[in-house]
Amino acid sequence: MNLVDHEFLKYMSRFDDCPFTLVLHGERHQIGQGEPAFSVVVRQIPKVKELMTSTSLVLGEAYMDGDIQVEGELYPALRHFMGQMGKFSTDTKVLGKLMFSSMSKKNQKKEVCSHYNIGNEFYRLWLDETLSYSCGYFQTETNTLYEAQCQKADRILEKLYLKKGMTLCDIGCGWGYLLLRAAKRYQVQGVGITLSEEQKKVFEEKIKEEHLEDVLRVELLDYRDLPKLSRCFDRVVSVGMVEHVGRENYGQYMECVQQVLKPGGLFLLHFISALKEYPGDAWMKKYIFPGGVVPSLREMLQIAGELGYYTLDVESLRRHYSQTLLRWNENFQKHRSRITEMFDERFARMWELYLCSCAATFMDGVIDLHQILMSNGINNELPMVRWY
User: Fold this and answer.
1) Which helix (H) or strand (E) holds 354?
2) Catalytic residues, which ones?
3) For the chain, how big is the Rg over CA atoms in Å?
4) Are 229 and 256 in contact (CB under 8 A)?
5) Closest by alpha carbon to 68, among 363, 346, 344, 330?
């Protein structure tokens, strides 16, 4: 065994919480004690210096390039491995530009669009019919992905305690399903904002198909320009959008919401969360969500309190998101050959790693998913018990 192989094996030996087999040049090495839960074949040995800069970036790229192969299914292996992310190395000084990108409107639009403008055809292949790209809600284990997404939308709308004729703003509205369902079920008027031209195009088509032009509209708009709408809403909802805002902008984001929310109005914030404040993952920032940062639950609650929001309800949907990601991956694998044709094998491996690793980190509690329901100031007109 040469020096590079020896250093790599020594570095990987730190991940010994769950036993696994590391195969180097055909030779099998066991990491940890007990029966190995999975095996990893390494065809190209990474340099330890690079692993010390970013463990996730080096191993992630090696998997994308086929230099690392997992024997068997990827998700179970990641379940065992991703729970040890506290042992990963990340040199934020070396990775400064990647880890802390510009939060200007221009750059954030570029970052958001790099993910959501991949193409509507791509997302239609593996999302459900609602084109909901966020955590579903599984009332039973046998729920289909479509049922789970409908149930998620209904749960959000019930929490918002909507009444006929109310106004609703959806910040980061995606392809528009939540507003479409709100308009049809509760006869509310709604405005959705997005930075993605692809999403806006589909949403506008659906508005016309449903003949809802008089009650719904979608704007290509940065959240910082919300006050320019010159409107105040009874309700505001934001699903999976604040993760793109950046830690330094959370306060401004919450203030912009407050400026368009009526006194006593309700705001539901649905977001991926963490126990503590972290700058994020280098591989995820480079390949999946440029500029993305996961807020901690405590910092969002603190900001809300300082601005005079009253927290009414907090709910964790962590395991629901793990299940959602696994369902997405099932659909992704069914259409993998088509996706490879549209892009290439490296892209397919990248997306598979993203879906499975996120499913694993949600299940292992590395990250969480929270819905916070709050009112803009005191609201004494709501039921005194949970109404959903």
Assistant:
1) helix 345-363
2) 358
3) 22
4) no
5) 346
